[in-house]
Write a structure and sequence with these properties.
Tetracycline Repressor, domain 2, Arc Repressor Mutant, subunit A, 234 residues, 2 domains, elongated
Length: 234
Amino acid sequence: MADDTDTDELGIPVLAKPLSASGRKRASITEAAIAEFVQRGYTGASVDSIATRAGVSKPTIYSHFGNKQRLFLAVIGGYLRDSYTDLGPRADGIADAPDLRTALVDFLGAWVEVVLREDIMTLRRLVIGEVERFPQLGEVWARINIVHDDALVRAFTALDQRGTLQVPDPRAAVRQLIAMTIGAAQLIRTFRPAYRFDDGELDALVTSGVDVFLSAYAGFVVPAAVVSRRRRAG
């Protein structure tokens, strides 16, 4: 039986809220499928195992989702969006912060703690592993990042207009700042899942990235005492 799930503009099935008995059954399948796909990946996951986890028959899964591919897109695409909804600190006040360096360090320090959460890192690895098979998921991830970057883009645009920063391309500047701070930490944890940063290590990574950013866009000079501490730490 073909499923009747609507799809979004990327072709990813959109899951309705589980208001009916059928919807609640679909929600049980979704929860079971997330656990199975996260644990075993797309290729290793079994529809039989998902059915067992959900307490439904295999034909029931196909009646709701059509096939394994649509099931994967629906549950992982939805999980990806839900995981990032209202996630992390807000950057709206950065443009008006009395101390821009401190505001950026605090914001990015809070944000990196979120993106290094084990559930987020596991989801990231899963999407990376399946992005060639399911490029729609890569597009979802990219769009989520754009939305989260927008507040910083607005802040840097305002700071450029005031002359506090000289940022000819605010979005490129945001990408550079993220790469030097959050991105650097994510890269390590993506390929070394067991690695754990201590607080001092993460603080140093974020602070040094902010200092490099400000030295490029605001003519900021790192205080000599900070340079001395970093040399001793190295």
